[in-house]
Design a protein that fits this description.
Blueprint (H helix, E strand, L loop, with lengths): L2 H19 L6 H10 L3 E2 L11 H15 L8 H11 L6 E4 L2 H11 L4 E5 L4 H4 L7 E5 L10 H10 L4 E5 L11 H10 L5 E5 L23 E6 H4 L8 E4 L3 H9 L8 H9 L4 H23 L4 E3 L6 E6 L5 H12 L1 E2 L1 E2 L10 E5 L3 H15 L1
Parallel strand pairs: 1-11, 3-4, 5-6, 6-7
Antiparallel strand pairs: 2-8, 7-8, 9-10, 10-13, 12-13
Bound molecules: pyridoxal-5'-phosphate.
Pyridoxal-5'-phosphate binds next to helix 5.
Length: about 375
């Protein structure tokens, strides 16, 4: 047995274990170790490769010794103001979490009894419910490429007399983008609901200007917008995400349960750097959107792949030659040093879908080449 087959089979065991424990993909380092991970291009990693800027990273590095020796501010308003400056919104209506995941967990503890969730989805929306049955799963149709049809969804929600629903736009893992005018029309028709959560974690890659509901949030008192900063700002390790709502009562219910010092000093400092780096941010965001268009076009030329249109910085495709996503994932990992997201463990998804996040043109081109070799 060669060293690589030993590694492959023990990684396989680990993978099985990890996938039974969670619906997230295992971290690459858990799968192959820190040494090997350095050589692998991680296409599971959904984050903006062009941000933070080199200057911001240097600034963070220089400030690290002081930052880790200080307590974070216990007053969240300062950070809210920094963020509000770049989002052009009212700082009082923001709530910043230790990643969007902290806010999602909190919402479920404080605001939600039962919630409609289209599946497949981002697993945290189902997994942290008080009781798993509190998530009412709306199964998206594989024959319709798992597309969410808002009219049908709302009719289903009304029929089941649910007071609360989730829409992720652009969707994860599908990348499906619902244009702003359709979202607005939907929100008007969903006014009778108590809570409409719209997760816009990937909306910054859906167009220019960004087709977000943020500037229109004042019109809908039952709307809570959720956004992870891990993806669009490229800082998953800092743990930053936020919620925005015109409904202060709703925000205050969440705030009561938010731990003091939930943001660390490095994350707070990063927020303070945002206003000055805003032009660079938008430049990087648009550059990445261009990369995704290129990747989409290149992947579509590969036979045996059905590539779904996307509004996000990642793409979902279906393998149509009978090879499973799991097999293709393994071959890319062990033969081409590339790690992609096999979506088979996502609730409601079949065994043939893979999600890849753009890592910039050069690495994306290598992925396309590897896929061509494996699927020809
Ligand atoms: C749709 C969606 N929302 C929220 C999150 C949570 O992000 P974080 O906790 O890193 O901010 C993710 C992470 O993948 C996601 O896909």
């Amino acid at each position: 047995m060669t060293e690589s087959t030993v590694n492959a089979s023990s990684a396989d065991e680990l993978r099985k274990h990890l996938f039974y424990e969670t619906s997230h993909s295992p971290a690459l380092t858990d799968l192959v170790g820190y040494e090997k991970a350095k050589d692998i291009v991680d296409f599971c990693f959904i984050a903006n490769p062009y941000y933070p800027t080199a200057g911001m990273l240097e600034d963070l590095q220089r400030s690290l010794p002081n930052l880790i020796k200080s307590y974070p501010s216990s007053n969240p308003l300062m950070s809210q103001k920094h963020l509000a400056t770049v989002l052009n919104v009212d700082p009082e209506r923001l709530i910043i979490g230790n990643g969007a995941t902290e806010l999602i967990t909190l919402m479920k503890l404080t605001l939600i009894d039962r919630i409609a969730v289209p599946v497949p989805t981002f697993g945290e929306y189902i997994e942290k419910m008080k009781d798993l049955r509190d998530a009412e799963l709306y199964a998206l149709d594989p024959k319709d490429r798992y597309q969410l049809r808002l009219n049908d969804y709302l009719a289903w929600v009304h029929k089941r007399k649910l007071a609360c629903l989730l829409v992720i736009n652009p969707g994860n893992p599908t990348g499906q983008f619902i244009p702003l005018d359709e979202m607005v029309e939907f929100l008007h028709r969903a006014r009778d609901l108590e809570l409409v959560i719209v997760d816009e974690s990937f909306i910054d890659f859906a167009g220019d200007p960004i087709p977000s509901l943020l500037p229109l949030a004042d019109q809908f008192t039952n709307l809570l917008i959720v956004r992870s900063m891990s993806k669009h700002c490229g800082v998953p390790g800092l743990r930053l995400g936020y919620g925005y709502s015109a409904n202060l009562y709703l925000l205050n219910r969440l705030r009561r349960f938010l731990p003091t010092w939930n943001l660390n000093t490095l994350a707070q400092y990063f927020l303070s750097l945002l206003p000055e780096a805003d032009a660079a941010y938008h430049e990087g965001r648009k550059r990445l959107m261009g990369d995704v268009v290129q990747l989409y076009g290149d992947l579509r030329k590969i036979p045996s792949l059905e590539v779904y249109p996307t509004g996000a910085n990642f793409l979902l495709f279906k393998v149509t030659n009978g090879m499973t996503a799991n097999e293709l994932q393994k071959r890319l990992l062990w033969e081409h040093d590339m790690y992609v997201r096999d979506c088979s463990n996502k609730l409601g998804m079949d065994a043939f879908h893979i999600r890849v996040a753009s890592q910039g043109r050069e690495k994306d081109a290598r992925l396309v080449e590897a896929l061509r070799t494996l699927l020809q």
